[in-house]
């Protein structure tokens, strides 16, 4: 897990050194070379050190960092495509260089020459490099840390020069590498090597670094455990997760220091007996999760010494009594979760040293009193969640007096008797969520006197005795009661004794009123969550500084509050975050929130605010984010926020109805202002007079017609967005006073012309977007005085390339977009831009291209001339582009593939032409081609060419007649293939894809009438990760059974003729996380139990059911005969999307609306998310609508903002905790868009 975190996320690290104020002065300031970058400076008497980070700042050329000594330099997420030889000439002494998440495809051979003697750490991850830049690395004598994760590398073989002697950590995951080269055997300093998610099939002993201690080969194509690893004497951590082992036979390792061997997510069905010479194999941590073990036989771990064994997510039903023979006095950790156990195995009961036991998600109904007897005194953590227990197993745990963590969630426990926890004298965490508890009696938890965390969420509580928490009142820090009550009565008397609570979660209940003193007994409270209740008001002084001196985070969103309670948010000296999103607040009165010196984030978005009174917020000196978007403001009165804000204060008032701005008093701290999507048509010259410190101003999608001179006299402004307004012309002084402006977006306006020296005062302007206007020509000196790097002139009315205008920026310009204009010719003078790396000329009126059209573009990497009917001598035309990597010639009227002398070309698009045949001669110079698109051409047979490095091929939409065994022989490294819309295919050999042993991504259709076609045979054995199938039959039943490996991550089923999907269709799919899409079909009804088997065999399922003809959707489709409320939403933890189906707002799909709210809380843990992440989740879930139809109208209803029922369903269902009643009484929802986790709690995909 630690390894994955290091290679699967972007490293954004800045070195902070502890500083003594008397010796070293440390401070962080905007950098002088670019104020959007931040410089961390350390000054002492001898020299200055500096760390620089430019994160998320767009650059097309490397910034000129003119600093004498830089320790660490990070340019992350900038979009840079090339690193020139002189890029780092001014950055002397750089020790750590981070260039992550850019678009780098070319690194100059001498680009690192100036830092060759100092560079120790280099991060090039998440770029577009096709090869290791050996010439760059050769002279890096001190480089010890290298990350090239997520590029397009195919080989590591080459001359590493001096770097091989110093390198200690190397990360090459997520590339297309097929082997570890023999030269790595000479990397004697290399201790950590990561090659995850490549195409490695075997390991040769003579290629392994001799002193490696951490080796990661997760998600490769290894068929068996590599015996060559036995020779690695220093091997400590070994990761082989997600390969294709059918069995496991461990070698006689020479290493005596094995901490971990991870072979999880393979297909291991049996484990071979260790054959060691008079010794045992010592492995501290042995991970066998997610394999295919069905039983643990006697002595299965003979010869093994281990302290931790992971066996979750197998299908283990039987465990022999002697399964753990030899480990009785050794094993400390055992995970048997998500198997098929009906009881605690006797073999487990013999483990005397066991401290951590996980048995969740089995079918255990009863636990004998002596099940934990042997290790009771050692047990620290026990999970029995998601079983079938109907009571606390008191007899079994009575002797577990040192237990710290107990999880009994997701069982069927209906009652807890006083005394059930008398034994739990050391228990600190108790999870009882999602049982069927209705009552807590007096002293329910008596005995658990050290209990710190208690979760009772997702129960059906109707009665809490006043003394139910007596016995834990002094110790309890955290109490979770989300979706816990089947009553609207706030349990104030029961909660009152919990005087030491730090964290109280009460969201998604049915509370309508709360007394002013409800929280007065919680004087140590730091976090309180009352989201999604039915609160119409809160009493005054519900929070007081004298009572709640430590309160830091208050969540009151998605209630029905119409006003902020008086005096409740005054003088809260520790408050950091206040969330009032999604209420019905109309007016922000004076002194609504005041004197909260540590408040950082305040959200009032999605209310009904029409007015902010002066000093509505006051005394908030640390405020960084104020969210007022999606309200009903018609005027922005800056007086209301004049006395708030820290040194970097951002205000979001987008999506209101603002037409006027009252600048009022000075708001000196406001640096970021979002006014997008309002009704502003005029900006007086003094509009921003009171906000002189603005750095970012967003005015997109308003109705601004004229930009008056002096309006933007903002000397600190760096980014100005005027996209999609009504601007027709610009005055010469429209942007006067913007000396620091770097990004200007004027796209989507009605500008017809620009003035001479229009941007002369913008001496730092780097990025200019003028697309979507009506410009026909440009003055010669229009860009004089700027530093343009990126210029977008697309979707205008140019008939000739405005070449003279580029002269002033010929050295700085890197990216030029002239697509969608009317340019009809080019010549040698068209582009006086010798440093250009990207040129887009698509969809113009070009016909004849002279041979010298691109004569001055020797550094060009990407050229797009698609959608022009071209005539040219392509061999001569491209003679001047020796470094070109990407060429787009789609829809150019080509009948044959031209001879292209582009030896460095990686991407070629020849789609939508009239190409009917191919030959090796046409590709004779393209030996390095990696991506070839031939979509919708006239090919009647597969391209008959040999491209040994081709990674992606798209031949969809061609009249190809047959697919034979020879069709793909020329593409041995192919990983991505598109064979959809081949409607003329009449013959398909069942083995035609068999040669594509690295194929991971496939888009294909079915050919039921084709000779020899059988989809399952076609797909079986391929290492597919993502598959899209266009089904041309009416029925999907057995076609894909047993077709996929456990590594499948995305499966999409579509087809305009598909009407029925059998419940057996997906019954054999198993593995880890899967996104299953059934889209754009004619399916009307999904059969019961269709997805139930999937939920049991996958670690996480995401369902996308958009754009079908589904007219009814029962929970039985997912849950079968189970009650979804008793199981929860984790069975589809990734989410569910059903928009575009003819579903009505009626009680038949009422269950889905509650499911959505519960999913946010249960599966997405929204209560622990930051405000920004929570808002993102809410925004997506807020798109959920159902259609209410009456004889007179039809309208969509948004579920999350619905306050009262609009159907025959009972009104009492809304926000109720009574789930049995809710299942048939809530409103329905259609458009549910939910997220898939990529990295739990850290990242997620929006789709």
Structure notes:
The protein is mainly beta and 1247 residues long. It has 15 helices and 72 strands. The chain has a 49-stranded mixed sheet that branches. A 3-stranded parallel sheet has the order 36-39-42, with no helix packed on it. The protein starts with a helix and ends with a strand. Among the domains are: 535-702, Alpha-Beta Horseshoe (Leucine-rich repeat, LRR (right-handed beta-alpha superhelix)); 704-709 and 716-731 and 738-818, Leucine-rich repeat, LRR (right-handed beta-alpha superhelix), CATH 3.80.10; 823-915, Ribonuclease Inhibitor (Leucine-rich repeat, LRR (right-handed beta-alpha superhelix), Alpha-Beta Horseshoe), CATH 3.80.10; 939-1024, Leucine-rich repeat, LRR (right-handed beta-alpha superhelix), CATH 3.80.10.10; 1034-1213, Alpha-Beta Horseshoe (Leucine-rich repeat, LRR (right-handed beta-alpha superhelix)), CATH 3.80.10.
- Main beta-sheet annotation: 49 strands, mixed
Structural class: mainly beta
pLDDT averaged residue by residue: 90
Instruction: Just name the CATH architecture of the domain at 1034-1213.
Output: Alpha-Beta Horseshoe
- Distance N to C terminus: 26 Å
From the spread of the alpha carbons, the general shape counts as globular
Helix count, DSSP H or I runs of 4 or more residues? 15
The share of residues in extended strands comes to: 15-25%
Q: What is the name of the CATH topology of the domain at 1034-1213?
A: Leucine-rich repeat, LRR (right-handed beta-alpha superhelix)
Q: What's the gyration radius in Å?
A: 33 Å
As a percent range, the share of helical residues equals: under 10%
Name the CATH class of the domain at 1034-1213.
Answer: Alpha Beta
- Indicate the low-confidence ranges by residue numbers: 1-23, 1203-1208, 1210-1247
DSSP strand count: 72
């Amino acid at each position: 897990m630690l390894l994955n975190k290091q290679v699967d996320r972007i490293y954004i690290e800045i070195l902070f050194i502890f500083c003594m104020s008397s010796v070293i002065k440390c401070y962080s300031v905007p950098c002088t070379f670019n104020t959007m970058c931040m410089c961390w400076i350390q000054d002492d008497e001898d020299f200055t050190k500096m760390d620089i980070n430019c994160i998320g700042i767009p650059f097309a050329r490397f910034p000129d960092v003119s600093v004498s000594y830089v320790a660490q330099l990070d340019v992350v997420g900038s979009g840079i495509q090339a690193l020139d030889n002189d890029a780092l000439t001014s950055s002397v002494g750089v020790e750590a260089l981070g260039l992550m998440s850019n678009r780098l495809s070319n690194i100059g051979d001498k680009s690192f020459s100036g830092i060759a003697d100092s560079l120790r750490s280099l991060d090039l991850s998440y770029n577009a490099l096709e090869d290791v830049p050996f010439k760059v690395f050769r002279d890096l004598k001190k480089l010890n840390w290298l990350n090239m994760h997520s590029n397009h590398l195919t080989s590591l073989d080459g001359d590493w020069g001096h770097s091989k002697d110093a390198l200690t950590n190397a990360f090459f995951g997520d590339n297309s590498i097929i082997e570890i080269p023999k030269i790595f055997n000479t990397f004697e300093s290399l201790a950590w090597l990561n090659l995850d998610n490549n195409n490695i099939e075997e390991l040769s002993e003579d290629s392994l670094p001799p002193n490696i201690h951490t080796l990661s080969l997760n998600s490769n194509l290894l068929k068996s455990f590599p015996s060559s690893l036995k020779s690695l004497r220093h091997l400590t951590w070994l990761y082989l997760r997600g390969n294709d082992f059918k069995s496991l036979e461990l070698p006689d390792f020479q290493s005596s220091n094995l901490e971990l061997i991870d072979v999880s997510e393979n297909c291991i069905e049996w484990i071979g007996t260790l054959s060691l010479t008079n010794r045992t194999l010592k492995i501290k941590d042995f991970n066998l999760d997610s394999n295919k073990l069905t039983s643990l036989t006697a002595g299965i771990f003979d010869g093994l010494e281990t302290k931790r064994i992971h066996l979750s997510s197998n299908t283990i039903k039987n465990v022999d009594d002697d399964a753990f023979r030899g480990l009785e006095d050794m094993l400390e950790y055992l995970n048997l979760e998500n198997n098929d156990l009906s009881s605690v195995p006797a073999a487990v009961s013999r483990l005397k040293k066991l401290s951590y036991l996980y048995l969740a998600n089995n079918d255990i109904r009863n636990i004998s009193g002596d099940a934990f007897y042997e290790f009771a005194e050692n047990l620290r953590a026990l999970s029995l969640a998601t079983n079938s227990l109907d009571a606390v197993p008191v007899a079994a745990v009575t002797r577990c007096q040192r237990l710290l963590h107990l999880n009994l969630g997701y069982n069927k426990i209906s009652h807890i008797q006083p005394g059930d926890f008398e034994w739990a004298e050391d228990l600190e965490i108790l999870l009882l969520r999602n049982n069927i508890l209705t009552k807590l009696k007096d002293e329910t938890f008596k005995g658990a006197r050290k209990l710190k965390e208690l979760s009772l969420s997702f129960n059906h509580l109707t009665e809490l005795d006043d003394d139910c928490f007596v016995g834990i009142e002094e110790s309890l820090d955290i109490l979770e009661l989300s979706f816990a009550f089947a009553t609207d009565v706030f349990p104030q008397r029961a909660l009152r004794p919990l005087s030491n609570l730090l964290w109280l979660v009460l969201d998604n209940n049915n509370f309508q009123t709360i007394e002013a003193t409800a929280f007065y007994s919680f004087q140590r409270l730091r976090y309180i969550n009352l989201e999604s209740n039915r609160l119409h008001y809160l009493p005054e002084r519900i929070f007081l500084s004298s009572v709640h001196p430590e309160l830091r985070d208050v969540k009151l969103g998605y209630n029905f509050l119409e006003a902020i309670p008086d005096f409740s948010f005054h003088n809260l000296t520790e408050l950091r975050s206040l969330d009032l999103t999604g209420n019905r607040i109309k007016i922000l009165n004076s002194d609504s929130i005041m004197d909260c010196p540590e408040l950082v984030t305040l959200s009032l978005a999605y209310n009904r605010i029409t007015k902010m009174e002066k000093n509505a917020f006051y005394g908030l000196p640390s405020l960084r984010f104020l969210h007022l978007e999606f309200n009903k403001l018609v005027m922005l009165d800056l007086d209301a926020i004049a006395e708030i804000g820290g040194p970097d204060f951002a205000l979001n008032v987008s999506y209101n109805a603002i037409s006027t701005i009252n600048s009022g008093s000075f708001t000196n701290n406001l640096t970021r202002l979002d006014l997008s999507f309002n009704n502003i048509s005029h900006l007086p010259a003094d509009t921003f007079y009171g906000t002189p410190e603005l750095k970012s101003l967003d005015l997109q999608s308003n109705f601004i017609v004229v930009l008056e001179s002096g309006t933007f006299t903002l000397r600190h402004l760096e980014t100005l967005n005027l996209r999609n307004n009504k601007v027709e012309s610009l005055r010469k002084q429209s942007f006067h006073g913007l000396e620091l402006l770097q990004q200007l977006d004027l796209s989507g306006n009605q500008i017809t012309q620009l003035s001479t020296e229009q941007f002369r005062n913008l001496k730092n302007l780097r990025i200019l977007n003028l697309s979507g206007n009506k410009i026909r020509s440009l003055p010669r000196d229009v860009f004089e005085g700027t530093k343009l790097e990126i210029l977008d002139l697309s979707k205008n009315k140019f008939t000739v390339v405005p070449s003279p205008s580029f002269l002033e920026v010929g050295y700085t310009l890197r990216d030029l977009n002239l697509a969608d204009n009317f340019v009809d010719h080019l010549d040698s003078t068209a582009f006086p831009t010798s440093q250009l790396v990207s040129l887009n000329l698509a969809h113009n009126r070009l016909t004849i291209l002279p041979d010298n059209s691109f004569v001055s573009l020797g550094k060009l990497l990407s050229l797009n001339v698609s959608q022009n009917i071209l005539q040219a001598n392509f061999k001569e035309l491209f003679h001047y582009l020796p470094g070109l990597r990407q060429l787009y010639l789609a829809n150019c009227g080509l009948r044959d593939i031209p001879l292209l002398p582009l030896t460095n070309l990686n991407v070629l698009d020849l789609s939508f032409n009239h190409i009917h045949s191919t030959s090796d001669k046409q590709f004779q110079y393209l030996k390095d081609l990696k991506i070839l698109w031939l979509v919708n051409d006239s090919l009647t047979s597969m391209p008959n060419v040999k491209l040994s490095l081709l990674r992606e091929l798209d031949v969809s939409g061609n009249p190809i007649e047959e697919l034979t065994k020879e069709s793909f022989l020329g593409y041995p490294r192919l990983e991505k293939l598109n064979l959809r819309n081949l409607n003329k295919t009449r013959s398909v050999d069942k083995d035609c894809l068999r040669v594509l042993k690295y194929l991971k991504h496939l888009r294909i259709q079915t050919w039921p009438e084709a000779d020899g076609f059988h989809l399952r045979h076609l797909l079986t054995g391929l290492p597919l990760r993502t598959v899209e199938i266009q089904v041309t039959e009416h029925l999907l039943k057995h076609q894909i059974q047993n077709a996929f490996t456990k590594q499948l991550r995305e499966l999409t089923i579509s087809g305009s003729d598909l009407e029925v999907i059998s419940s057996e269709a997906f019954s054999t799919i198993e593995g880890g996380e899967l996104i299953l899409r059934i889209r754009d079909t004619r399916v009307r009804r999904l059969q019961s139990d269709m997805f139930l088997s999937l939920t049991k065999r996958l670690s996480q399922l995401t369902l996308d059911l958009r754009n079908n003809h589904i007219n009814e959707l029962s929970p039985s489709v997912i849950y079968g005969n189970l009650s979804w409320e008793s199981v929860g939403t984790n069975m589809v933890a990734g989410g569910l999307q059903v928009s575009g189906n003819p579903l009505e707002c009626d009680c038949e799909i009422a269950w889905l609306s509650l499911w959505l709210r519960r999913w946010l809380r249960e599966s997405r843990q929204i209560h622990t998310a930051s405000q920004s992440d929570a808002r993102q989740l809410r925004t997506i879930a807020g798109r959920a609508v159902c259609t209410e139809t009456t004889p007179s109208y039809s309208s969509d209803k948004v579920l999350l903002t619905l306050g009262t029922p609009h159907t025959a369903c009972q009104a009492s269902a809304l926000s109720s905790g009574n789930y049995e009643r809710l299942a048939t009484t809530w409103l329905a929802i259609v458009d549910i868009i939910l997220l898939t986790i990529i990295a739990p709690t850290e990242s997620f995909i929006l789709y």
